[in-house]
């Protein structure tokens, strides 16, 4: 298996923009069992001070998958998708994204480390989410683990 070194820290993924859509917010809220009316009823959301339906926690991770090719950077870095597992995610929020907002995503690799004699390699990819005016919405880290399995793919 190819070993991924510290030289990949700073590698930047392509920027893209995506609109936060009401239908997707409602669907996501129902899928995660969210019971607060602010996530599915726009009048309730506005009465609680939101501009529109707010994005529930972790929804930004789903929006990041709206890229034209969510795995393009895996291919670019020769990360074998079949050997990848999701190892964790964490979020830092600054502002609330709401339905109708257009968000800009950019990302970079911020850490790489190994365990079990390089049998498990961990890559931490940080996404930066901003409104179009540049105001920060959130950062979130996705950690993947690349397992050494058999011959290189």
Structural description of this entry:
This protein has one domain (6-20, 55-147): Roll (Thiol Ester Dehydrase, Chain A). The chain has helices at 22-31, 42-47, 59-64, 72-76, and strands spanning 12-19, 84-93, 102-115, 120-131, 136-147. It is elongated, with a radius of gyration of 18 Å. The longest helix is centred in the N-terminal third of the chain and has 10 residues, at 22-31. With 153 residues, it is an alpha+beta fold.
Radius of gyration: 18 Å
The level-1 CATH class: Alpha Beta
The total domain count is 1
How would you spell out the order of helices and strands?
EHHHHEEEE
Share of β-strand residues: 35-45%
The 3D shape can be described as: elongated
- Count of strand segments: 5
Mean pLDDT: 92
CATH-level-4 superfamily name: Hotdog Thioesterase
Low-pLDDT residue intervals, each spanning 5 or more residues: none
Question: What structural class should be given to the helix and strand makeup?
Answer: alpha+beta
Number of helices: 4
The name of the CATH architecture is Roll
In the CATH hierarchy, the third-tier topology is known as Thiol Ester Dehydrase, Chain A
Sequence of strands across the biggest β-sheet: 1-3-4-5-2
Can you lay out the helices and strands and say which pair or pack?
Elements: E1 12-19, H1 22-31, H2 42-47, H3 59-64, H4 72-76, E2 84-93, E3 102-115, E4 120-131, E5 136-147
Antiparallel strand pairs: 1-3, 2-5, 3-4, 4-5
């Amino acid at each position: 298996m190819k070993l991924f070194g510290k030289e990949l820290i700073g590698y930047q993924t392509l920027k893209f923009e995506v609109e936060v859509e009401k239908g997707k917010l409602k669907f996501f809220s129902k899928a995660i069992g969210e019971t607060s009316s602010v996530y599915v009823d726009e009048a309730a959301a506005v009465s609680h001070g939101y501009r529109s339906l707010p994005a529930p926690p972790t929804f930004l991770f789903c929006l990041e998958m709206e890229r034209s090719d969510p795995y393009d950077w895996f291919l670019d870095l020769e990360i074998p998708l079949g050997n990848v597992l999701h190892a964790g995610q964490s979020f830092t929020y600054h502002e609330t994204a709401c339905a109708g907002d257009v968000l800009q995503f950019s990302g970079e690799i911020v850490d790489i480390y190994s365990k079990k004699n390089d049998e498990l390699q961990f890559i931490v990819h940080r996404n930066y989410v901003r409104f179009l005016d540049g105001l920060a919405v959130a950062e979130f880290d996705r950690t993947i683990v690349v397992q050494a399995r058999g011959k290189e793919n």
